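Lab notes, practical 5.
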Amino acid sequence: MKEIRDDAVVLRTYKSGESDRVVVLWTRNYGKVRVLAKGIRKTTSRLGGNLETLAHVNVDLVKTRGEFYIARHVAHRERLITLRKSYARINAGYAVVEVMDAIPSDDVADEDIFELLTRVLLTLDDETYDPMLVRPPSTSNSSPWTDRVRSSTSASTADVTCPWSRSTPRSGARCAPIVDRARRSRPTRCSSYGAS
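Output from the prediction step:
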């Protein structure tokens, strides 16, 4: 049997049987994996509160003959208390993990996606950050994401940094065609960590 120990973020959970739960995790070194948490819904389970959606955890898993891993031990890495106190933050966090869960790559490692996911969740846990600025990219639009875009709701030319960017912002870069396309297709503005 294959054993793995890794950091993970819980993307989704759903019931299985009378006392079990299937948990979808995005791990740092193994990508998206599906875990069967046996007995997690029992009141005596030690795993119960650790494998909830939006949890950032350390996991010990064992691969079975089927498609699932079995959870042996789970411990919180980050508690994300501020995120869990605010409905707006929880809503923004669910939107982000829903987009990540839609990526069809089981057992394919992508550390950049894991880092992006944890960075967004830790930013949502920051009290000084406005959770309304988190808007995941549209899954129906296949246009490339940009490092710096002009805010589509303000008339000023101030740049905002897009949190979905994988690279560092290039100073002075503008992407007016994508902003114009976004204005026509959606009334919402680009997500940002904050204006420059």
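Observations recorded by the TA: The CA atoms of residues 15 and 21 lie 4 Å apart. Confidence is low (pLDDT under 50) at residues 139-196.
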